[in-house]
Every structure is written in structure tokens, then in C-alpha cells.
Design goal:
globular, 8 helices
Length: 199
């Protein structure tokens, strides 16, 4: 369900595990990078780790989808919708499909792909857990410790690398979302018009 909030932005409501409904800032292709990163960082203040994981993953998936679209032929809004959603049946309707297609298009190398797949696994554990779960869960800790992007974020910001699983998770989201946003704005590489089959 979408609707305006006092400052004029729009929010989208997501459902976590079928019962917990949270509102998060709606992403937009025109949203400045600083505002996007503010959205990610603001999630760290939420009380529920499940909400943090699911909502941060939604922001990541949105910007990964935008970066993938930037490497494809120009499409209408309807065509993009069919590709990214189509009631769950689009070719890029899942985070997994976006991750693998992004890798195939050369958006990132294998190390980043591994981070993305680990983030997807963390998201799934939180989203489908039948009981309360936190970043202190041993399985979550193991996956967060595998994330590599937080090291690169620390180097680019000249700050110490964070050590807690939650901070590793959010820093990885931060680093990847920043890259996808910049790729969308400045590095999109569309293929030439099709010439093999003409109508």
C-alpha cells in the first residue's frame, strides 16, 4: 500500500513474514545518492533485526534492478514492469535472477556476486523464520562474516571496518547500493540495436 507522508515523500509498505508491516522510503530512479544512503543508514535505528534485513534487501534489490536495466536495450515502462515483476513471473522478478544477470552483464565480479548471494540468504532466513531472530543468530553471524564489501567501504571512507554482524550487513548493502546507483547514473552501457532479426 502506498501513500504520502508529511514531508511529501512516498513510502511503500512491506510485509515481513506475513504479519509485521513496516513502511520504508520509496526508491526512485531520480533519488540522489546521499538520500539513498540515508535510507540505508536509517534502517540501523529500527528495533527489529528482521525489519532491518528485509527492508535493506529491498533497497538493494531495487538499485540492482535499475543497474541491470541500464545495461539492456531501451524499454517502455510497461516492458520494464514485465521484466522486473509481471506478477512474480518476470524474467528478473527475483533477487536471485537479478544477481546472476547482473554478473553476466559485467556489473561486478565473482566476489561481489558472492556477497550478493550471501545477502540474499540472510534476507531469506530473516523473512521466513517462524520465530524471533536477530543478527546474533549463529547462522546469520556465519553469513555476515563472509561479506567482503564492508572492507572496501571502510577503505573508501577511510574509517575502521565495522565488526558486528549487523554493521557488516548494512555496510555491505551501503557499498553495493552506492555502486549500483553510480552505475545507473554514469556508467550505463546499452547494447546496439538488434540486427540479427528484423521486423
Amino acid at each position: 500500500m502506498n501513500g504520502p507522508i508529511p514531508d511529501g515523500k512516498f513510502v511503500m509498505t512491506i510485509e515481513v513474514n506475513g504479519y509485521e508491516r513496516k513502511k520504508m522510503p520509496r526508491s526512485s530512479p531520480d533519488k540522489p545518492l546521499g538520500a539513498v544512503i540515508d535510507d540505508v543508514l536509517a534502517l540501523g535505528s529500527l528495533k527489529e533485526d528482521r525489519s532491518i534485513a528485509v527492508m535493506a534487501s529491498a533497497i538493494l534489490e531495487y538499485w540492482l534492478g535499475r543497474a541491470v536495466l541500464g545495461r539492456l536495450v531501451e524499454m517502455t515502462t510497461q516492458e520494464k514492469g514485465c521484466l522486473l515483476d509481471n506478477n512474480g513471473h518476470g524474467a528478473l522478478a527475483t533477487l536471485s535472477s537479478k544477481i546472476w544477470v547482473g554478473f553476466a552483464l559485467g556489473l561486478y565480479k565473482a566476489e561481489a556476486r558472492k556477497d550478493l548471494l550471501n545477502l540474499k540468504e540472510i534476507r531469506n532466513i530473516f523473512a521466513h523464520a517462524d520465530e524471533h531472530i536477530e543478527f546474533s543468530n549463529p547462522e546469520i553471524i556465519k553469513l555476515c562474516n563472509k561479506l567482503k564489501a564492508s572492507k572496501y567501504l571502510a577503505e573508501s571512507t577511510m574509517k575502521p571496518e565495522q565488526t558486528s554482524p549487523k554493521e557488516h550487513f548494512l555496510d555491505t548493502i551501503h557499498h553495493l547500493v552506492s555502486g549500483f546507483h553510480l552505475d545507473t547514473k554514469f556508467h550505463a552501457k546499452r547494447p546496439p540495436p538488434p540486427d540479427s532479426i528484423q521486423y
